[in-house]
Amino acid sequence: MRASVIINALVAVVVGFGSTLAIIVAAAQALGATTAQISSSVSAICLALAISATYLSLKHRIPMVTAWSTPGAALIAATDGSITFAEGVGAYIAVALAILLTAFLKPLTRLVERIPASIAAGMLAGVLIKFVIAVFDQAALVPALVLPLFGLFLVMRSFSPAWAVIGVLVAGTALVYGLDMAGPLPTDIGLTSYEFVMPVFDPAALIGLALPLYLVTMASQNLPGFAVLRGSGYAPPTASALTVTGLTSLGSAFFGALTTNMAAITAAICTGPDTHPDASKRWLTGPFYGFFYLILSLFGASLVALFAALPPAFIATVAGLALLSPLVGATATALKDEAGRVAAMATLCVTASGLSLFGIGSAFWGVLAGLAVIGMDALALRVRRARGP
Asked: Which of 47, 66, 325, 343 could staple 373 via S-S, CB 3.0–4.6 A?
């Protein structure tokens, strides 16, 4: 056991929870949820993440961390308000059942498992580079906050890479309050109460929300999540992961929670060498990750307000600096095989571009671009062989 195992799990939770919580709240509000229902939904999904990440990591001895579907939340937040919260819950249940069905479709799981490591790593690098670049975007906007934290990170990393990010986290929190950049803190801390929601299965909501939510979750979350694990040298048990996330999604949906799926960005924080130099021991982050999310589930309402008090520039800086090392590792893996470098770079560039088509994010299209390059290279090789010397 190393301190970095606990630290990286904590950083992953802070980054995952703090950087996208606003989207989750906006999605619930778009469906007409009350304040109590929003708190219940946040707490329920935190509990689902705690259970799924802990179970999968313990069972498979792989750092398998889970997350909510951020693209899915963005999709819901963009709805026109014609879908009620109860109908949204019905759609969540339908998506959970579809994920469980997918777990038993072996052709799909085999397809995910056969993605080349260079493509998976290129996709991961394309996702991560946007977060690292965001640090310097924020430095131009809030130099008094970001530049001192970047300098501290460089100094601490030269002595102890494992403590560099937590140093930024602690010092940054103090600096936020020193610069008077924090919002109002919650006045009372209390346990969250869960609110059961009776689902309504409306055909329009199932077609207009459940179907695109399922496609976005699979293409923009689960596929990149499995690719992150492959890019870090692990063989993800896709069927098991889909089964567990499907079951936790099904149970938490009745309390208003969005779909649970494999994590990608936060997973990269937990799967790299900064977590533990021995890849066989990085799975230890899973139970700690689950523990921290369990705490969040207990105090969901208060912690929603607490994280909302932190400025976006601070969250972006912590996320970007935490993902710098995983970016280096992913890029090295992507370019390791000379024959696959063009395909890997195509994947990286398309993913980093932010391309979005049919509601599906750039990570999916990046993987398709890389596979297309590999396919064209293989076809050209066959043609040359057919023509002879």
From this structure: 343
